[in-house]
């Protein structure tokens, strides 16, 4: 096994996170916005994992499993919402739902 | 027995509670029974207690009964404590006994009224409050009763509340007496600051030790107490509410505005006599107030057309006599006149009420006329009471009480011939207007004919009161005739005796003959002008000078107009200036600021999800940057 330097993995996580964030901000399609959120979650999970291996502690990996199961639940709810969203507005454009304007 | 004087207060209070809570569901007979039973038993109890005390042959009897501790804070301890002495005994006798008779009368008088239970509930509450007032051991408890009777007076003047003018009269009475009450409560504060207690007995014993005669604080305290008394007793300058208070039912006028409540001021001054004796100037003001009030009210009574308004002005005038007596130090004479006045004035009001009831609620005397054959019981009792009011010599109680006052005013070292002359002129006017009232109502041209003769519940109280108005005077006869002093001997332990100046030996008899003749002459004069020669009155009225006075007196010397112009209107216009209260701008400003902030922050809520995300990201970047920089 090649020993990956921790900093590389952190940089990878940052890149993934920023990609996700930009996707979230730039995309108008609500389905892609959900996917971007998933990428950001995984970036955070990656940092937990690398931390766990660096200090040889199980906590980080435990946290990653927690994030994974939470993400699964979130996707389930999110996809259901997107389905309803599509039924109501007949589009996936997030800007279409601005009824809560003050 | 002696320890349980609280029962006298508790009985009418229980009647009130029963009537107030379940009165609506009771039949008229039950209501009448409950209403009269409480005060009736209290009257019996008072008679028994009074008999025991008087037959115990103690010169100075007192009963104190401490019920419970009412207020206890640092420096101020008020007990719910009662105190019965000779002065209070006279008052509770009048309140329970006359009150009972008036309640019996009301059972028939109010029979047609829909507010039967409400009426008796108020009356019983009034009797309980009045008993608290006179039996109070300390000034705060007295003040509780004082306000209680004021409240009941307000409720009962406005008893027929559907008519707005009755409500107006009730509010006027409440506000005018309230001015006096404010003076009284400030007086109580002053006394508390000075003596550290509100117990009446302690204050009265401590006052002469603390103050020398003429002390400024004593004057101020006496003056504030006088303010309270003047308001409650309808004396100058707070007298204008009493004639309007006649808007209430006649038994209310008889009980509250003739026999008991309006004499609370007399009671207060007599009760705190030690303070007034230390402030001779204020005591002299009491006499002046009484003398002026008795005159101006007498003149006003002379020209009224409404029979109840005649009696209202007459009440003011007679209380003026009591104030005059108090002012010259004739304490027991004032209390004696209070008792006799309670008998005959209650009788006059009850008689007038009965007449008004059987004449389709007609108040105008000049529309009555010729009633003496149709209503014999009312006529004879009314005649006896009027004779007592007019102080016809030798046979009426009013003569003995008023004559006692006039003589003592003359003989007192404070009074003198000036005050005596005013009281004497007042006696002449009193005889004149009371004869006018009787002559116009019962004689002359026949007016409206009565619907029916009143039943026993109305006539029995009239007969009992007529007996008392006639015979009540014989317990106190002057030196010159009989020399009986049962009444002043009873009060001797509580109230100091009159200090007399040097006078010629036969002066008293001379004055008695003069006053006696005067009232006979006045009655004769009234007979002449109202029965034989009505043209004299008409000529007098139609002359421009006479017309002016008649109008002035009819409106009670224009005090209402003056108070309207001097106080009410300026006050209303000042309050109109600041109709939109300047200080409101503070709270309005706060709400405006909130609304402005809301309109600005609402712009940030675009409802666009990506916009929110952008803000969150910017916020996160800002926070991170800051955490790195700092």
Description of the molecule:
The complex is a heterodimer of chains A (102) and B (630). Chain A is mostly helical. Chain A has helices spanning 6-26, 30-55, 59-89. Chain A has a domain at 30-91: Orthogonal Bundle (Helix Hairpins). Chain A starts with 5 loop residues before the first helix and ends in a 13-residue tail after the last helix. Chain B is mainly alpha-helical and 630 residues long. Chain B contains 26 helices and 2 strands. In chain B, α3 (86-109) runs antiparallel to α19 and α14 (307-327) runs antiparallel to α15 (331-358). The longest helix of chain B has 32 residues, at 164-195. The mean pLDDT of chain B is 85. The chains are: A mainly alpha (102), B mainly alpha (630).
Largest sheet of chain B: 2 strands, antiparallel
Helix amount of chain B:
over 70%
**What is the mean pLDDT of chain A?**
89
Top-tier CATH class of the domain at 30-91 in chain A: Mainly Alpha
Uncertain ranges of chain A: none
Label the overall shape of chain A.
Answer: elongated
Radius of gyration of chain A: 17 Å
Report the β-strand fraction of chain B as a percent range: under 5%
How many E strands of chain B? 2
The strand line-up of the biggest sheet of chain B is 1-2
For the record, the CATH architecture of the domain at 30-91 in chain A stands as Orthogonal Bundle
Calculate Rg of chain B over CA atoms. Answer: 30 Å
Percentage of residues in DSSP E strands of chain A: under 5%
How does the helix and strand content of chain B classify structurally? mainly alpha
Question: What is the distance, rounded to the nearest whole angstrom, between the alpha carbons of the first and last residues of chain B?
Answer: 89 Å
Number of helices of chain B: 26
Biggest interface, chains and residues, is: A-B, 13 and 13 residues
Please give the number of β-strands of chain A: 0
Head-to-tail CA distance between termini of chain A:
56 Å
Q: Uncertain spans of chain B, ≥5 residues at pLDDT below 50?
A: none
Query: What is the string of helix and strand elements of chain B?
Result: HHEEHHHHHHHHHHHHHHHHHHHHHHHH
